[in-house]
Description:
By secondary structure, the protein is α/β, with parallel strands linked by helices. The protein has 3 helices and 5 strands, in the order ββαβαβαβ.
Amino acid sequence: MDMTLELEPSHCQARPTIVWVAGEVDNMSARRLRACLDVAIGYGSPVVVDLERVSFVDGAGIKVLVATRKRSGELGTSFTLRRPSRAVNRVLEIAGVRDLIEVEPTSLQQPLTTTQSHR
């Protein structure tokens, strides 16, 4: 599966620029992700990267996320990962960089729930 990117820019400091990433982030697609994130941090607003639909990430993808976090800090903007998939969380942990990048707490995420009636 290829990687898809969607960017919702913000020109307002109070509202974040959001980048949605889906599919596989590997050595072949990491350059596209980096280019998109460079554009996102260029707006000067906080950047939120939604990784819920990422099915695979390798070291190249993690390197892009860590480097973008560093660049955003140098520019004085925040960089946050939102809803990283299990695949992303696992690689962040294995690579030992989970604490280097801000991740929205799971308590802010609204779980899908269903109500069932038992009679």
